[in-house]
Amino acid sequence: MTDPLLDIDAALQVEDLEAQTYEDDRRWAEFAFEQLIDVLAVQHTTNPHTPLTESFLVVHDGTMTWDIPGSDQVAGIHVQRDPAAGTFRLEYERAPIVALAQNWLVSRGADPAQVALHGEHLPTTDQATRDLEQHLAQAGDRYRIANSYTSDLVLDPGRAAGGPPSAAEDLVYDFSTWIIAEDRRPEPGQHPVRVFFEDVDYLGHSYTLREGGFPDLDAAYEWTLRAGEPDNPLPPVEAVSSPRSAAARATSPATAAASTAADVVAAPPSTADTTASRPRAK
Predict the structure, then answer these.
(1) Average pLDDT estimate for 102-123
(2) CA-CA distance, 19 to 222, in Å (whole number)?
(3) 98-106 and 127-137 helices cross at what angle (nearest 10)?
(4) Rounded to an integer, what distance in angstroms lies between the CA atom of residue 102 and that of residue 79?
(5) What 3-state class would DSSP assign to 262?
(6) Where are the alpha helices (DSSP H) in the chain?
(7) Which of 23, 34, 145, 209 is deepest in the core (most CB within 10 A)?
(8) Poorest-confidence range of 49-58, 174-183, 189-198, 214-223?
(9) Are the C-beta atoms of residues 78 and 105 closer than 8 Å to each other?
(10) How far separated are the first and last CA of the chain, in Å rounded?
């Protein structure tokens, strides 16, 4: 069952149970008493192999706005109940975006379709975003998250200029998230480091998620210093001159044959260097 924006207590369903350990009780308290927790998706299920009943939740935690700047605002919550013993276990993992919270839940047995978000009130997006979110939700341990940062600033141009507060329609909303991840299993020709960038149009009630490829962590961090700026697009995931892909091209029979034919037909009359210059990665 998926019920976006369900009340957190109704989703957790542990009001008649005791926490099995102190840590379970502490984790439950982090969410149970907060008014700024929105349940975006929930799956309730019965484990056929044990007497336990389970729930998998995706939540947005609005309290993170006042935590350390850049803190993750999404979380996956896994609840296991033992009705016979009258106890429950609760684990959670905070994540910068919904797809990574779903990934954590799927790794613990959640059904990807059940913890997917849907509903008329949810922000709209495009097919490229949906495809990338699905990929991340079901990517297992492929990506190691190195760092992330969520911005949810409301900027007042009037006050920034030393004047009176701006009118509501003149406020600027800077809502975005960047994630730096190492790809443990990159495809041939792909960069080993990724940046995933979620850009939110707050007033337009929409968002996009895109990815870019980088040769190393330093290059990825450099990009995030100007994340989202129009003249700072994400570079392609594919490495332009990957040694791996270049070697594959060099050893391909078709490529070798084509190169031989080209040498016969268009061999240069001089000994000057005729190697074509390759475009640099953006």
Answers:
(1) 90
(2) 45
(3) 30
(4) 14
(5) helix
(6) 8-12, 22-32, 98-106, 127-137, 157-160, 217-224, 243-251, 253-265
(7) 209
(8) 49-58
(9) yes
(10) 44
Place of tokens 């031989």: 260
Q: In this structure, are strands 87-95 and 18-19 parallel, antiparallel, or unpaired?
A: parallel
Both tokens of residue 74?
């999404």
pLDDT of residue 158: 81
pLDDT at 240 over 80: no
What is the DSSP annotation of 87-98? EEEEEEEEESSH
Per-residue pLDDT of 7-40, as tens digits, reads 888 889 898 899 999 999 999 999 987 778 999 9
Which of 81, 87, 86, 21 has its CA nearest to residue 55?
Answer: 81
Lookup: tokens for 31: 């969410």
Bridge partner list, 194: 181, 213
Residue with tokens 């270049």: 246
Q: What angle do CA 222, 211, 153 make, to 5 degrees?
A: 65
Q: In this structure, what token pair is assigned to residue 277?
A: 């210059």
pTM: 0.80
